[in-house]
Automatic annotation (TrEMBL), chain A:
Pfam families: PurS (PF02700). Its EC number is 6.3.5.3. Gene3D superfamilies: Phosphoribosylformylglycinamidine synthase subunit PurS. It comes from the Bacteria. GO terms for molecular function: ATP binding; phosphoribosylformylglycinamidine synthase activity. It is found in: Cytoplasm. InterPro entries: PurS, PurS-like_sf. It is an enzyme of class 6 (ligase). This is Phosphoribosylformylglycinamidine synthase subunit PurS. Keywords: ATP-binding, Cytoplasm, Ligase, Nucleotide-binding, Purine biosynthesis. It catalyses: N(2)-formyl-N(1)-(5-phospho-beta-D-ribosyl)glycinamide + L-glutamine + ATP + H2O = 2-formamido-N(1)-(5-O-phospho-beta-D-ribosyl)acetamidine + L-glutamate + ADP + phosphate + H(+). Part of the FGAM synthase complex composed of 1 PurL, 1 PurQ and 2 PurS subunits.
Automatic annotation (TrEMBL), chain B:
InterPro entries: Class_I_gatase-like, PRibForGlyAmidine_synth_PurQ. One of its GO terms (biological process) is 'de novo' IMP biosynthetic process. The active site is at residues 86, 194, 196. SUPFAM superfamilies: Class I glutamine amidotransferase-like. This is Phosphoribosylformylglycinamidine synthase subunit PurQ. It is found in: Cytoplasm. Keywords: ATP-binding, Cytoplasm, Glutamine amidotransferase, Hydrolase, Ligase, Nucleotide-binding, Purine biosynthesis. It comes from the Bacteria. Pathway: Purine metabolism; IMP biosynthesis via de novo pathway; 5-amino-1-(5-phospho-D-ribosyl)imidazole from N(2)-formyl-N(1)-(5-phospho-D-ribosyl)glycinamide: step 1/2. It catalyses: L-glutamine + H2O = L-glutamate + NH4(+); N(2)-formyl-N(1)-(5-phospho-beta-D-ribosyl)glycinamide + L-glutamine + ATP + H2O = 2-formamido-N(1)-(5-O-phospho-beta-D-ribosyl)acetamidine + L-glutamate + ADP + phosphate + H(+). GO terms for cellular component: cytoplasm. PROSITE patterns: GATASE_TYPE_1 (PS51273). Part of the FGAM synthase complex composed of 1 PurL, 1 PurQ and 2 PurS subunits. It comes from Propionibacterium ruminifibrarum.
Amino acid sequence: MSRVVVDVMPKPEILDPQGKAITGSLQRLGFEGLSVRQGKRFEIEVAGDLTEERLDQIRDAAEKLLANTVIEAFTVRVEED
Amino acid sequence: MVRIGVVTFPGTLDDQDALRAIRICGAEPVGLWHASDDLQGVDAVVLPGGFSYGDYLRCGAIARFAPVMGQVIDQARKGMPVLGICNGFQVLCESHLLPGAMIRNEHRKFVCREQRLRVETNDTTWTCAFAPGEEISIVLKNGEGNYMCDDDTLKSLQDNNQIVFRYLGNPNGSRDDIAGVTNEGGNVVGLMPHPEHNVDELIGTSLDGRRFFESVLQFLSARV
């Protein structure tokens, strides 16, 4: 069994209200100089061999469903044990 | 009699109000179910407001792949009038029937209020009974109604007259004050405010919502 991780982040030019809220809260807690943007992490367990074709399928899935590429960018990587 | 379908997804809230609005405005309301790909021969479809699939992943992202949506997308591409209200607007954006996407409101608060809008174009199946430039009042209620699109998309929306409604007093940070847009054909319209709540004097301070449904009736009767 292999694990593939898809990270989805709001594009840099898109406002991130949740990240802004977290940044403000960190400041109130005394954590200075930390600016946060919030994204999503998907951990995908892949049955069988992790071929290049399988990775392409996961990229396709990320493009179709996991991310909305109008406002988000994603990366796909294989997680080593 | 014109038959207008309203899709119910798990987590939809305003389907009953939409069905009722359609009846009040003189068409036959037809309930459609997310898990069926049968549109029952309706003449137009409304995707109502709510929190389909609990807003999991992104608002509208899961609903976009519901069985009923394959037919809605097919028919919309063939010219059927489709109206997406609030969550329905989000579903239409996720389906790429409309450009852009919605993110969380700029000020991070849920908005619930009467909202003034300007009707920017009546060249759509859902606004042909309005005059361009007319100012109307429609209920607005959402947490993620902040319309976003890139510069090229905004320019093509402006150039092609596809911005249908603008907010008078931007309530959520939406780009260019956009409250609703249409596709190139003018048959698919999405907006964040809720016309189905403004059809009855008992519960709405304006009856401006009726004219959305009167528009589509006017369009459909002219076509026959």
